[in-house]
């Protein structure tokens, strides 16, 4: 492709060609003088849409949500100065959760580097050093000052982005330079694929049931089917970490093997299952503290095996792989008798593990927070109404706070749907951009679940969903507070004061007035919720339901609950 006006092929034209060849169909960003050439280049490619967001944080979470929901790569574009700085929080989220994202960041022309140019971030002459800053929130960061280096930098960035965000800093003159190289699609890059022999061997020695804990790498490497096959071969129970709820069957009918979620917002049955297991197999998770809480004792008493791109935070027999789909396929072949373990003369014949047994039936369990007596729709009742209303295939993205914990704990994943939550940094306001990005990637109804505090941070990104007429339903839980912080004040600071309650607002009415034509309502009674949800979900475009709830209700969050009274079999 070439510039539609001049017919000459610029660096930006080459970049968009490479992205399109990589399977990217949308890039997300906010325009500005030092990124407008990239928007110009994208305009001349029919297969690439440059989406205009309202804030760079949300543009970057759009890229993150786009990739997490299955697209090959999330791409965000931002201009220099303040625009670029707005990316940092979102890239930090993508880095911690290892989400493949490429950030293309404009900079002022190089001729003025270090000489007081507007928004200088060259690091020269006392200016902010963007390369140092973005290196800290990415797995790869290069400032491209020579147009001849773009091809190498782009190839390296695309290869590195498999492990997390990559950043290219692109001064305006470099973007506008004529691209001299060939218009190729770059070389394919090799990915380390772990051979799971040692895990197969240990599984053969295992005695008792197997519990699998699956993590976000299963989603990243699109290995859900392979995980399900492994589960069937091992007749294992599967739990997921909280930010990978959608990688294994949801608890409930048709999925008796699913134990639910691990960790702070998790289900007590996971610890019970581990205690009764002969071995635990971690698939694609490092099991960070939020995912491990309450499980340390049970895990310490078991052999722990791990397959994934990074070793877990607890001691285990770990096999490294950057492609879980391929490694799980190998493991399944070996365990099911259709492959061989190893390749030498000493290699074991493949066979199913004998000592592995089918676990006793374990009932699904829930945390039970103290009953809340005051006003407001209860989180559990609201999640039950959502569970009844959301059809199969609906994608769900969840934000932070008491609202987020309740959704993770109570709301099952839809069959065939995605369930995304950002627990890497747990940054409020993630869900708005991420939900919009998911909707662009998957093209069907996405439900964003967020608290009023998260809404006040980044909820205005709703405007982008309206602009692009996306089938996005925003379900707000309005407790007129940063309620998770209210709960902490009550439980840990003797309830003597509150910084965290807000002046009340009516978000549904407010949004309906602000965006004429947007269906947006406030719901204060549980009886009215099913109809309000159904109406919102039946819309073709965006819609909003704001649920009035209470900052005094304690959510299903283990650190807030007394373990003794905390759970009951349901
Ligand atoms: C960007 C950011 N700032 C601060 C926090 C700390 N924090 C965690 S939950 C929370 C309150 C969330 O309020 P809201 O979205 O209304 O949800 P609620 O807890 O009220 O259900 C805060 C301030 C955070 N997670 N992210
Ligand atoms: Mg709130």
TrEMBL record:
UniProt-listed Pfam families: TPP_enzyme_C (PF02775), TPP_enzyme_M (PF00205), TPP_enzyme_N (PF02776)
Domain Thiamine pyrophosphate enzyme central: 199-294
GO cellular component entries: acetolactate synthase complex
Pathway, per record: Amino-acid biosynthesis; L-isoleucine biosynthesis; L-isoleucine from 2-oxobutanoate: step 1/4; Amino-acid biosynthesis; L-valine biosynthesis; L-valine from pyruvate: step 1/4
Reaction equation(s) it catalyzes: 2 pyruvate + H(+) = (2S)-2-acetolactate + CO2
GO terms for MF: acetolactate synthase activity; flavin adenine dinucleotide binding; magnesium ion binding; thiamine pyrophosphate binding
Domain Thiamine pyrophosphate enzyme N-terminal TPP-binding stretches: 10-120
First-tier enzyme category under EC: transferase
SUPFAM superfamilies: DHS-like NAD/FAD-binding domain, Thiamin diphosphate-binding fold (THDP-binding)
The family this protein is said to belong to: Belongs to the TPP enzyme family.
Name of the featured protein: acetolactate synthase
């Amino acid at each position: 492709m070439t510039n539609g006006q001049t017919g000459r092929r610029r660096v930006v034209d080459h970049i968009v060609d490479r992205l399109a060849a990589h399977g990217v169909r949308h890039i997300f960003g906010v325009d500005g003088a030092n990124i407008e050439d990239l928007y110009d280049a994208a305009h001349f490619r029919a297969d690439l849409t440059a989406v205009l967001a309202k804030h760079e944080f949300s543009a970057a979470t759009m890229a993150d949500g786009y990739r997490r929901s299955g697209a090959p790569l999330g791409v965000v574009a931002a201009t220099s100065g303040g625009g670029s700085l707005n990316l940092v929080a979102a890239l930090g989220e993508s880095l911690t959760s290892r989400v493949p994202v490429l950030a293309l960041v404009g900079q002022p022309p190089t001729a003025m580097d270090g000489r007081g140019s507007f928004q200088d971030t060259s690091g020269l002459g006392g200016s902010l050093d963007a390369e140092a800053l973005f290196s800290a929130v990415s797995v790869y960061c290069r400032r491209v000052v020579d147009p001849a280096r773009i091809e190498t930098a782009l190839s390296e960035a695309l290869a590195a982005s498999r492990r997390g965000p990559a950043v290219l800093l692109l001064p305006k003159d470099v973007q506008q330079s004529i691209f001299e190289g060939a218009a190729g699609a770059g070389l394919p890059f090799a990915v380390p694929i772990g051979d799971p022999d040692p895990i197969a061997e240990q599984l053969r020695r295992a005695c008792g049931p197997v519990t699998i804990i699956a993590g976000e790498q299963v989603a990243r490497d699109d290995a859900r089917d392979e995980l399900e096959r492994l589960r069937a071969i091992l007749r294992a129970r599967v739990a997921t970490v909280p930010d990978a709820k959608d990688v294994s069957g949801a608890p409930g009918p048709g999925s008796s093997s699913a134990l639910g979620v691990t960790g702070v917002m998790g289900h007590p049955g996971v610890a019970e299952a581990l205690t009764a297991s002969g071995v635990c197999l971690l698939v694609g998770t490092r099991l960070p503290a939020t995912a491990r809480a309450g499980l340390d004792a049970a895990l310490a008493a078991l052999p722990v095996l791990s397959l994934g791109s990074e070793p877990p935070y607890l001691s285990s027999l770990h096999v490294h792989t950057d492609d879980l789909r391929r490694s799980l396929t190998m493991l399944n072949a070996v365990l099911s008798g259709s492959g061989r373990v190893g390749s030498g003369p000493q290699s074991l014949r493949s066979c199913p593990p004998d000592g592995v047994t089918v676990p006793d039936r374990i009932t699904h369990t829930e945390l039970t927070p103290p009953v809340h007596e005051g006003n407001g729709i209860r989180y559990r009742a609201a999640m039950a109404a959502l569970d009844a209303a959301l059809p199969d295939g609906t994608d769900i993205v969840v934000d932070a706070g008491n609202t987020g914990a309740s959704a993770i704990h109570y709301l099952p994943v839809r069959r065939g749907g995605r369930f995304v939550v950002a627990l890497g940094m747990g940054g409020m306001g993630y869900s708005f951009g991420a939900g919009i990005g998911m909707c662009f990637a998957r093209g069907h109804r996405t439900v964003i679940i967020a608290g009023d505090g998260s809404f006040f941070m980044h909820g205005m990104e709703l405007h982008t969903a309206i602009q692009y007429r996306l089938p996005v339903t925003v379900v707000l839980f309005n407790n007129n507070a940063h309620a998770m912080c209210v709960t902490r004040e009550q439980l840990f600071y003797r309830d003597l004061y509150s910084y965290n309650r807000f002046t009340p607002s009516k978000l549904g009415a407010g949004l309906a007035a602000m965006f004429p034509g947007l269906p947006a309502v406030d719901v204060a009674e549980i009886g009215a919720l099913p109809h309000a949800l159904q109406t919102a979900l039946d819309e073709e475009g965006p819609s909003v339901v704001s649920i009035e709830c209470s900052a005094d209700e304690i959510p299903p969050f283990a650190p807030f609950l007394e373990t003794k009274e905390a759970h009951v079999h349901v």
